[in-house]
Amino acid sequence: MAWVPGGSPACPALCTCYVSPPTVSCQANNFSSVPTGLPPGARRLFLQNNVIRALRAGTFGPSTVTLWLYSNNISSIQPGTFRHLPALEELDLGDNPHLRVLAPDTFHGLRRLQALHLYRCQLASLPSAIFRGLHSLQYLYLQENGLLYLQDDLFADLANLSHLFLHGNRLRALSEGVFRGLPSLDRLLLHANRLATVHRHAFRGLARLTILYLFNNSLAALPGDPLAALPALQFLRLNANPWACDCRARPLWAWFRRTRVSSSPVPCASPPHRRGTDLRHLRPRDFDGCPEEDEEEDEGKDEDDSDEGGGGGGAVAVVGTPGRALGRPGTLPAAPPSAFYRDGLPPHDLRGSQPRPPPPSRDSRGPSGDTPVAAAPRPAPTLLPLLGLLLPRL
Fold first, then answer.
1. CA distance 392 to 306
2. Are the beta carbons of 277 and 252 closer than 8 angstroms?
3. Contact 92, 98 (CB under 8 A)
4. Which of 33, 142, 248, 376 could make a disulfide contact with 221, Cβ separation 3.0–4.6 Å?
5. Where are the beta strands (DSSP E) in 93-246?
6. How many CA atoms lie within 13 A of 26 on its CB side?
7. pLDDT digits (tens, 9 = 90+) for 170-194
């Protein structure tokens, strides 16, 4: 139902306004700035596909719940632009290729924000406090930027985050505390980076992670068994990496033998006589002569177990209880992922009620998405053949 002039706030020129829910659609009108006169009671603002260059404080009203600004020319965001938007739940700033820098307090105060889109910008780094206080955030899109590194505790306040998309950047290493504070994380996409090093504790604390994509990186080995910290893992992609199938491969090979996870192939790149062999199909004798694991690593594992079991030292309990007590991890009902995806949009401008495709088709950027692939083969049991030999003699 279109906004009726007279008694209701006027609709900006070249925009379309709707009454229920209060919506202003100004998309694809070649606006170089946010149009003036936005109705203060509007809950949904659609400003995508324009040429807006800057965002200024005081532009958006406090009733705004959904704000789409993707596919513009935004290069600067004035401090305080989003500070007085207490109801904001979804903010899309993606596909703004001139957005290179964000102030540390750009998103401070957005206590109800559930989805933040920063994909396809030109962000080479992120301030350490950029996500501070975003306790309600569940979906964070950082893919296809130019990120070179992620500092420890960058996501430490995001206890309710379930989806973290970091693929298509230039990351070279994952440090020990890079994912600290993410007990609710379910999906972590890190493919198409330049990762060569993963700290053995990089995934510690991600007890609910079910999907991990590390394909198309520069990984030759995963020393220290970092995947052992992921008890809920279901889907793993490690292909398109230069895996070294020598002694360095033993921790990963041993992990595959004791877990049941749907995985991509893991083709060896070296040594030459094993090139093309799937790392998962190596045999125990292939590791004859390899030194045992360092005692220091074993001691580190014991310390990890005691930290997790003891319940001390900053452990965060996340439970699926209903409610919206902001700032308390685990109290938010899970928002449906389909509410925040961009593919398959209908031709008209109001898209909130339209069905969206499932997340895998958009987020994985891989040929098979989250479709389960063949699990690593399990070693054949040896007890039955022995019984077959013994029974005829009884």
1. 50
2. no
3. no
4. 248
5. 115-117, 139-141, 163-165, 173-174, 187-189, 197-198, 211-213, 235-237, 243-244
6. 27
7. 999 999 999 999 999 999 999 999 9
SS3 at position 237: strand
pLDDT tens, residue by residue, 22-35: 999 999 999 999 99
3-state secondary structure of 256: helix
Quick one: DSSP state of residue 182?
-
Counting beta carbons within 10 angstroms of the beta carbon of residue 185, is it exposed (0 to 12), middle (13 to 18) or buried (19 or more)? Answer: buried
Q: In degrees, to the nearest 5, what angle opens at C-alpha 318 toward C-alphas 163 and 297?
A: 80
Q: Which helix (H) or strand (E) holds 268?
A: strand 268-270
Encoded tokens for 318: 């996340």
Spatial contact of 381 and 388, defined as CB atoms under 8 Å apart: no
Burial class (CB in 10 A: 0-12, 13-18, 19+), 90: buried
> Which pLDDT score, from 0 to 100, does residue 87 have?
97
Cross-strand bridge partners of residue 174: 198
Render pLDDT for 88-113 as a digit per residue (tens, 0 to 9). Answer: 999 999 999 999 999 999 999 999 99
For tokens 């962000």, what's the residue? 123
Give the span between the Cα atoms of 19 and 16, in whole angstroms: 10
Residue 43, C-beta contacts closer than 8 angstroms, at least 6 positions apart? 21, 22, 23, 63, 64, 65, 66, 87
Integer-rounded Cα radius of gyration of the chain? 25
What is the per-residue pLDDT for 293?
66
Element (H, E) at 46: strand 44-46
**Average pLDDT, rounded, for the chain:** 81
Q: Which residues pair with 276 in a beta bridge?
A: none
Instruction: Give the H or E element holding residue 68.
Output: strand 66-68
Global model pTM greater than 0.70: yes
- C-alpha closest to that of 43 among 26, 57, 60: 60
In whole angstroms, what is the distance from residue 23 CA to residue 278 CA? 54
Assign 230 a pLDDT band (cuts: 50, 70, 90): very high
CB–CB of 185/205 below 8 Å? no
For residue 297, pLDDT beyond 70: no
Contact (CB, 8 A) for 207 and 233: no
Q: Are 229 and 255 in contact (CB under 8 A)?
A: no
Tokens of 299: 């001691």
